[in-house]
Design brief:
four-stranded antiparallel β-sheet; 4 strands; 2 helices; alpha+beta; Alpha-Beta Plaits
């Protein structure tokens, strides 16, 4: 397994329950595809560097996890089709 980290920004127009549901959705994908979650760091609501889709704030979440290439492809696919996500990035951690 390879170590990765992903950061994603959730729209602030979602209520707390919907925001938590989005976070749990991605944690579930990681565990269902034999990934291991090392750390979940919820940064909370922060100002964006520039407006994205007419929004100036977003809810930031950083997750460190271990997995394989198929997990990364599936996460990327689901990030792209999830309405509550403004931006996302998945990085392989350096050695």
């Amino acid at each position: 397994m390879v170590a990765y980290e992903t950061m994603f920004i959730i729209k602030t127009t979602l209520d707390e329950e919907a925001t938590n549901a989005v976070i749990e959705k991605f944690k579930g994908i990681m565990t269902n595809m034999a990934g291991e979650i090392a750390k979940v760091d919820i940064w909370g609501k922060r100002r964006l560097a520039y407006e994205i889709k007419d929004m100036s704030e977003g809810f930031y979440v950083l997750i460190d996890f271990n997995g394989d290439g198929e997990l990364v492809k599936e996460l990327d696919r689901v990030f792209k089709i999830t309405d509550g996500i403004l931006r996302h990035i998945i990085l392989r951690k350096g050695e």
